[in-house]
Structures are given as structure tokens and as C-alpha cells.
Write a structure and sequence with these properties.
The structure is a homotetramer.
Chain A lengths: L2 E6 L4 H12 L3 E7 L16 E4 L3 H6 L1 E6 L3 H13 L3 E4 L9 H8 L13 E2 L2 H9 L3 E3 L3 H15 L9 E7 L14 H4 L4 E5 L5 H8 L6 E7 L6 E8 L6 H12 L5 E3 L17 E8 L4 E8 L3 H16 L9
Parallel strand pairs in A: 1-2, 1-4, 2-3, 4-5, 5-7, 6-7, 8-10, 12-13
Antiparallel strand pairs in A: 8-11, 9-10, 11-14, 13-14
């Protein structure tokens, strides 16, 4: 029997992706929850059979929703999450509203007041590879940002193993496809401005940075993050530079990853000296990781790649949903 | 000594192109005429040395403008053209405001009233290959649309030669890069909607159709025009289908073109059976024409290609300007 | 219990697609059949668990193959199909080797001798929407070409209904993504030659033309086919022009399609006056069809869109396989 | 009066660019020097009026060549440079053949013997911003690599000013368009492999690295260079990370650049905190440089952008040619 899962923001890129995954999910059925101007989404969801309802708490009972995915901006998530939780639904929020631990931190990075601060304490950060057990019992899951997903999966095992010379600094040169900016009309992301171009748009202070700090234990001064735009639809590739404390080979670094990720269904490790490209992860929920190292100097480079709309958004959200609802973690995702 | 030429709408794609051509022009110097929100154009025109002035009639005297290019929407052109003309400048208008012959025709295709209808009678249609002498003495030149430029240059010699069976219909399957839609924020032209896509967006009733009819003599029922979007920045390629009255070879059709265009500096003809692609014309003022024919059945295909921002807009405007001001027709364009 | 299905040519674009679909198929399991230089395909098929075997008849028994998909060039298909058939496997051939009815026709269009001509008589043309019952019992299924799939699905119902004035000619202006040319190193399809370009590469005489003639009943002189390259990875969009015998509305044409395709799982019809773009069909097995018409003149335009690697190749091959093996026709495809 | 300049390799991307620039050059006229399979280049050079001659020493006298540009592979340059020099022509070599100082260094990085080693001593490294006077008198000019041009122009002033903590390491995360790989058929650079992808292809050991070391004074262990492929035609953007010895603002770094580059015609500096994108430099001979810094920690990021076919190849070659032949340095380039 199918479980009904609501999707708010179903006409955005991550919303469309979520509806698609739920449509292929053996135990779930999507319900489109209409909020504001979602009419435009119709074209992308031509298959007429998908149920629709208003994005209101009443729809939880009326449609029998066990869970709701919020593919929305933070301010919308702060407005809707309390209502859906109160109505009894599990909520997976794809915005940044519940990722940081305190209202002060939120204000510092998002430049606005948090209007649902009482929920921060109970929100679980939904990076299953590290918080799987917490996600299992969670009612409010905060889905990680796309950039931090790729960065944390690459950095955390190496930091835990004490391999990285943090004082020498960790540099994450990140590149993203345009869908990461969401589905909206802006001159900056119009076709002619993006095609045949490449541009860096954020240095040091991207709002995804604190997610990396709080998960990796790095200090802000130790982590340099650059966000850059590739003229493609989807995909994030991060080239991460650091120094090891001691001479280390790429194979030894891969051993650290293998020990950590041996049983992970969505992490793929590359042979030492090989790295992923974006085609390898497009339309999948995988995070692919490869390493190059110069043992003579301790210089190391990790390349981490995901599809920003899948492992970086809707795919990871369904992975979290699967854990929260007791389904197989990979259901709908392979 | 340099002649000053004003450009209104210098931050749009055709405006940027016009300023660039004028900057390379041996006899001209561009002056940016600021109208409404042109601040954004600064980034594209970083070379600081270009003069600036308000887009008002006073600037004609103050800046010594011999001519003004209006790279603007029709409603702005209808507002500004009379003022600049009254102030003594030659005006080349790149919008559709002065292309059609009557206010009624304008209203029928542009869905709004013409607010400068008294100028229609004196406006010269600036397709130099056919109206060169009129352009030479003109004070108001209406620069042709991008699609009609490619279509008229392909069709007119063959219609004049009586080669085309008009009753059988002429089909123009046209494809354009995205810059043809102008520089503005729309969801439809955002990168993720356009990349890896191809879409037809206008059938039969594109507002460029009447320009083809009035130049070629075709009836509306005889000319089927389809406009389609290619995921590229610039370029128009038209695949034009028709039937010849009698068996005809591609070489015989090329002979008709050769007779017409032998001395034209901006028309390039291909060997019979060969056709241009868009790389051949990118960043040039050329219109490239090639022909394929099946003599057994009279079926003919002409491929006509231009750069929509050059021969389809700014380049042709400068070509017209050169004629109007008595310069070499190719100055700045080769 | 899973049925084993071999794939020859698994490192080409349609082969990769076929392996992917079989991997998601509830009743099938892919076996990679190695033929010549397939090593390069490894990178695209990193998931190590897929079985491998030589592309020889012995593998049918050794691996328990019920069927083999030939994602190969015609000359390879002519060599391998007889062997796999003799060994007891159902064969679905994605090349053009068995699409035409006679060796003479094959030689005329493919410019080489047919080396397995005795199989032509028993090969079933695998367009399920019209030959479903024949496919059900077939042992050798010839998968249609990508262009003819989109064209035949659009044209055949209208020709059957006697709606098209054939003497006036049917024009199919077809555009395809680059993957249609296969996975190989050519200067013509290198990135820098294709990006920001659009080019027509075949007029009248594409080898897919006879597939349209034999299915639609059109004469060669009545059907003008142009093949053009879009700078995208995947997708075919055909803009088809014809004249109706009598005044007809788009809605009336859609009624003809509705009557024919009401129960088809992979045909989607658009509202009269609306047409599909390529995003609508990307990564799906759908053929989307829309119509625009000018009743006053009888001029009609049909837009037909598919993903050339799915409905135009691997997806349709699995659809045929499902029919031949008695599975649900949509298994693995939705 | 025009000076004749030969171009060998005129059908490659940098050769086409060189011919184009020479065609617009007020004092030069290109002569296509045919070497091996250059027939394919015809399509790109349709303007029939360009002279042609064999790529042999005799053509120097026969065509009155003052100079020859070698847009060729290193092994061809090593074969032809001695011949053209002996015949009296100035040679600008765009390959890597004469960039390194010794045959041993050449063999270490290019993995083959140097076959014209006696010319190494007299070859001048053609980075005009630093070797202008040497270039003026040179007969053999070695045109810098594309990556090193962007890197050296960014790094050298800061290293000279003693601003960079070399021991902390300099990281150059470089991204290039596909034309940097040359015009040839490879699967790796075919459209479908590149579009919607992003890939890193060289870590630490790219053959352009020694050009940066020898110009900047950095040790190999201090300079980490990563080469990555962007799905665009042309452009190189390098994101360069380093630590300053002491707290420094972006404005202070820009002051160092301003002092060095105040009179340079082809260096454009950005306001502190702003950085260039690739559209800013496309089809120009500019190198654009911008800086972001975090004074609290000494972390600095420089973004350096060029068009790899212009300032990174043909444009810089003409700039060198202008110096060597005594023309205005910017002739043909603005």
C-alpha cells in the first residue's frame, strides 16, 4: 500500500525532481501541494494523474499525508514547517531554514530573523552517512545544502582520521550547474549570460559555509570556499586542496574512505589517482570521490562530485524520508 | 575626423554589438545615450573611455551627433525617433516600429497603436541589397528584422526570376539563437530551460512575417513561417522549402543568386549542393546562402544563415549608417 | 526470477542506455557481451556487478540468455544476428541491418551488400504502436530508426485517415542531438565544431527515409526529409509540414490521433495549438505529438518529439523485448 | 605597404584565429603555408582571397615573408623553425618546443627528445609584459602557453613584491574551454562527452607547469596546478589561492598590480573585491585580473582570465610579431 507524501514547491527544479523520484518509489505516491504561483509547474508535470491539494495543514488529514517535502525558500519553510508538523506529518525541509543550530547563526548567514526558532533544537541534519540513526526517529529533518553535502562527505573522514593539517588551510574550489540557483527569471542566469561563460560568484562567505564548519569541526579561518558557475544544467564538482601532516599516498587516503564508507549505498570511491567527472553522477544519488596526492610534499587533492538536484537535494531528501518512514534507504533511488 | 554616433539601448545585446562595431569603425565614435535602466550595461562595456550622455534631443547638439541608433523596443523608438530627427540627427531604428507601411498594419501585428505614424511614409526599409539608393538619402532608416533579413535575401531573387511555384507554398523553418529575444530576465530564456532543449515558439503569425510578405510579394497564405529556439547565443538559420515551376538544378538556382548578388559585399554564395552552418557567419555581417534541389520533382531547399546580432541587427544598422553618411558601405564591418 | 539479456555494443550511447534500463527492469538482468574494443565502456558502467561474457553464440547457453540486444553497426549485426538466433536467443537489432525488406533496397540506401539476407523475410519491424501482435511472436525484431520513429508515429494515422494531400508533399524538417551519431571520435562531432552551431547535414537521401516510405505509404517524391544537428546531447524534434485535403482544425487532427493512440502507453498528445519541446521527452520513452493548423488554407504543422536514445533506440528496444518475452510492455520504462 | 606573414597550421583553432587577426591587421597580410593535411581548413577560411604557398623555406623568398607563425605541434615546430629562420624569416612558435631552457627540461616534461636544441639559447619567451625589450630584437620568439600566460601575469608582480608566503603554497585551480586541446578528432573531446560535464584532467604535472616555475621563481613543490575542462569553446579562468605574509587587503594587492601594469595595453585590473568572468575577455587580447582577500587571515584569491586562443595563443603571437617587426604593439588587436 502506498504512502502519500506531499511536495510543496513542486514546480521548482528540486521539487520536480522529488515528484519524479516519488513517482518511481515502490512505497510512495506524491501529492502536489499548491502554494502561491505553482501553475507554471504544470508543463513540467504533464502526467495528469498526480493528486493535488492546497499547501495547508488541513491537507495532511484530507490527503492522508505521512510526510511533506518542503522544496521552498527558507521563509516559506519557516512558515509551513510548524503547521505540517502540528498536523502530524514528518517534514523534510530542503531549504536552509533549519540547518544551522541557533537563531543567531541563522541571522548571521541568512541576513534575516528566524521565525520558527523553537524548531531548531529538534531538527535533525539529514546527512545519512553520519546521522542515520537520528534521522530514523526524526519528525523534522533538515536536508543539507548541495555544496556542503559534497564537501562534508569528502572532508569528514579525513579530519576524523587526523590526516589533514588544518592550520595550513583547506581550500574548496566548488563548481555548480545553474539549476542550483533555482527556477526563476534572473538576468544573471539567462541563457546568453551563462553559455560560453564561467564565473566565480562567492568567496569565503557563501551561506553554505557554516554547514561545513559545524559538520567538519573546521574553523572559519581554516576553510576557504569559492562558488563558481558552470554552463551546465546540473552537477557539483568540488576540487578540495589540503596538506597532510605527513607523507601520504592517494591509496592511503582511499583506505580511510573505504573504512568509513564500505557499506554506504550512495558513496562510490575511485581508484587512487583517478577522479570522477559530472557525467558519472548525473541523475543519480551517488557522491563520487577520488584522490590525487604528492607524497613528497603532503599535498593532496580530493575531487567530490554529486548531482546537485539528487544527492544535493531531492534524492537525499527521499533517502532521509526512507529512513524516517522505515523504508529501505535506497527505495526509489537506484 | 571622427563622426559621433549615439546609441540608445547600449546595454542590450544588439546595442553592445553596435557600440563594439562603432568602436572599430575608422570614421565613427560611439556615444552611449542613457535611457532608463542602462546601468547594468556598464559591466559589458568596461572600457571606460566611451562617452556618455542622456538619451535626449539636446544631446544631438551637445555631443555633435550626426546619427543615432535606436536599439530599443518599438514603443521607445516611437517616442525617441521624432525627437532625434527634429534635432537633426539621422536615425537608424532597430525595432519594428517603422518597418510596416501603415498604422493599421502595425496594429494588426504588434497589437498596439502606432504613436509616430506620420513618420511611416518617410522611413526607408534598410535592406541595402535591395534599397541601397533609398538608404543613401534617408534620414529615418528602419532596420529589418533578423528573420526577414535572412528570408528576403534568400527568396526575393528567386521570386523575381519567377522560379518559385507560389501556389504550392513557401515554408520557412527558422531557427534562432537566444540573443534574438533580447537581454532580459525571463524564465523561458533562463539557462536551465534552454540548454539541452529545442522548441518551436511561433507558427504562421510571428510579427516578422509581414516584412517578408511586403518585400517578397508573397501572400500570407503562401508563406508558412515557424520560429524555433536553438540553445546557442547567436545565429539564425532558415531552411526554406519550395517547388520550382519546372525541373531546376541547384546550380541553376545559384546562377540566379549570382546574377543578383555578384557585387554584394555581404552575401556569400555556396557551391550547388552545399549549405552554410552558423559557425560560418558568427560575428560577421555576412548572409550565407546555399541550395539543394531535386530536379526530378522540382523540390528545392535553400539554407540562409546570418548572425542575428550582426547582419540581423547591429551590423546591418552600421551598413545602413555607412550608406546614409556617405562612408564606405563596409567600414567597420570586415 | 530474472531473465538474462545480453547487450552487444554496451559502450555506445544506445548500449549504455539499454544496460541502464535493463538494470531497472523488474524481470531482466543485463549481461555485457564484449565485442572488439569495448574496454572504453567501463568508465560509463562503473557499477561493477554487471555480468560480462564474450559476444559469441556460446554465451547464450553459458549465460542463459533469453534475448540479445544488438547496439551495433549494421555490418556487425549482420554477422552476429544469425549466430545468436541459431543459439536460441531472441534478437532485437538496433542497427539498420534488418529494417528494409529486400537486399536490393538495403544496398541502395546503405551502399553495401547485405550479408544475412535470408533473415530479412522473418524480421519484424518493431514499431509496437502498429506491429504489436507481430512483435509478440517474433524471434528477430528490427528496431526502427530514431528519425522514422518520430515521423511514422506522426504521419501514419493522418495518412490512414486520408487527411493529407500527398501530392502537395510532406516536408519533415528534423533536428537531432549529437548522440544520434553514435559514440566515436570525429572532428565533425567534436565539441568546438558543434557548440554554438546548427547545421543541416542531409537532404532528401538520409538512409532513414525508406523506413518512413514503407510504413506510411508515401512515395519518395512526396516526402522531403532534412536532417539537422542541434548542439545538445539527446533528443529529436521533427517539424512536419503538409496540406490537408479540406479545411481542418488542429482539434480535428488531434481527434484522429486520439482515436488511434487512446490506449498507447508511450504516446502523449498535446492540446490543439500546443506542441512539445525536447525537455518534455528527455530520458523518457514517450513520443509527444502536437498540432497547429490554419483551417483557412489547409496548412498543417505537426511537431513530434522523442528522446533519440530511448523511444528512438534503447527504450523502444526494451518495449519490443517486453512484448517478445511476454512481459508488461512498459516494464522498466516508466 | 603590407608585410607578408606566413601561417603554418592555419586550419587549427589558433591558426584560424591568427589568420583572422592578420586579415584585420593594418600592416600585415597572411599567407597560408600548407603543411600536411590542411585541406580541411578551407571551410573555415572561405574568403578566397588569402594567398597560399607550401610550408617550405623556399616560400620565404617566393612570397616575401618577413615572418612565420608556427601554429603547430612541437615536433613540427622543431622541424620547421630552423628552416624558416635560415631563410631569413622571424619565427613566432606557438608550440611548446622552445619555451623551456634546456633539452633536458624539454625531455622531462614533453617526453621526447628535442631535435632543434641549438635554437633554445636564442629563443625569447614572448610574454611582452615582462620581456618586451628582448622580443623587440628577437628572431625566434617562443609564444607562452595559454595556462602560464594567465598564471604568470597574475603571480609575478606579487612574488616580486614579496607578498606571497611561498612556503604555504600557491594553488592554481585552472579551467579551460575545449579549444585549448586543439582541432582534432578525439572521443574525449566529442560533444556528447563534454556537454553537461566538467572534469579535472591534470594534477601537478601538466607540461605548462615549468613555464610558471621558470617565470615566477616558484619551486615545483610550492605550486599546485590543476587543469580542468569547461564545456565551452574558448576561455581560461584561473582561481589562484595563496597566503600573504602579513594582513593585506584586496585594494593593497591591486595597488601592486597597478604599479606593474599601469601602462600595459592588454591588462585590465578590476576593483578590489571584483573578479572577471570569461565573457569579459572572449575574443579579446586582454588578461583581466581581480582580487579577493581576507585580511584577518592573509588568505588571498586572484582570478585571472584570458581567451586561450587570443592572449593565450594567436593574439599574443601577433603582439610579439608587432614588437619584433617594429609595429605598434596593439596593431590588429583592438
Amino acid at each position: 500500500m502506498s504512502v502519500s507524501v506531499g511536495v510543496v514547491g513542486f514546480s521548482g527544479y528540486s521539487g520536480v525532481e522529488a515528484v519524479g523520484i516519488l513517482g518511481r518509489h515502490p512505497q510512495c505516491e506524491p501529492v502536489l501541494l499548491e502554494h502561491r504561483a505553482d501553475v507554471d509547474g504544470l508543463k513540467l508535470l504533464r502526467k495528469a494523474s498526480v493528486r493535488r491539494a492546497p499547501a495547508s495543514a488541513n491537507s495532511v488529514a484530507a490527503e492522508g499525508l505521512r510526510a511533506v517535502l518542503l522544496c521552498t525558500a527558507p521563509e516559506v519553510s519557516m512558515e509551513l514547517a510548524p503547521k505540517f508538523l502540528a498536523a502530524g506529518a514528518v517534514v523534510v525541509d530542503l531549504s536552509g531554514a533549519f540547518r544551522l543550530r541557533t537563531p543567531a547563526l541563522y541571522k548571521a548567514w541568512y541576513k534575516e530573523e528566524h521565525t520558527a526558532a523553537d524548531l531548531l533544537a529538534s531538527a535533525v541534519y539529514g546527512l545519512p552517512e553520519f546521522y542515520r540513526n537520528s534521522v530514523r526517529g526524526a519528525r523534522l529533518i533538515s536536508n543539507p545544502g548541495c555544496y556542503p553535502t559534497a564537501a562534508n562527505l569528502a572532508l569528514r573522514p579525513l579530519l576524523a582520521a587526523g590526516l589533514i593539517d588544518r592550520k595550513a588551510g583547506v581550500i574548496c574550489d566548488a563548481k555548480s550547474g545553474v539549476s542550483g540557483a533555482g527556477r526563476k527569471a534572473t538576468l544573471k542566469n539567462s541563457f546568453c549570460e551563462v553559455t560560453e561563460n564561467f564565473s566565480a560568484y562567492s568567496f569565503f562567505n557563501h551561506r553554505h559555509v557554516p554547514e561545513v564548519l559545524m559538520n567538519s569541526g573546521l574553523e572559519e579561518a581554516e576553510f576557504s570556499f569559492t562558488a563558481q558557475l558552470i554552463p551546465i544544467d546540473r552537477g557539483i564538482l568540488e576540487t578540495i586542496y589540503f596538506r597532510a601532516w605527513k607523507p601520504v599516498t592517494a591509496a592511503e587516503i582511499m583506505d580511510v574512505y573505504s573504512a568509513q564508507y564500505a557499506d554506504e549505498p550512495f558513496i562510490r570511491l575511485y581508484q587512487a589517482g583517478s577522479v570522477p567527472d559530472l557525467h558519472a553522477v548525473a541523475h543519480t544519488n551517488f557522491c563520487d570521490i577520488g584522490v590525487v596526492a604528492d607524497p613528497a610534499t603532503g599535498r593532496c587533492i580530493v575531487v567530490s562530485a554529486i548531482d546537485n538536484l539528487v544527492k544535493g537535494a531531492a534524492g537525499q531528501a527521499i533517502q532521509n524520508l526512507n529512513l524516517a518512514l522505515g523504508f529501505d534507504e535506497t527505495a526509489g533511488l537506484s
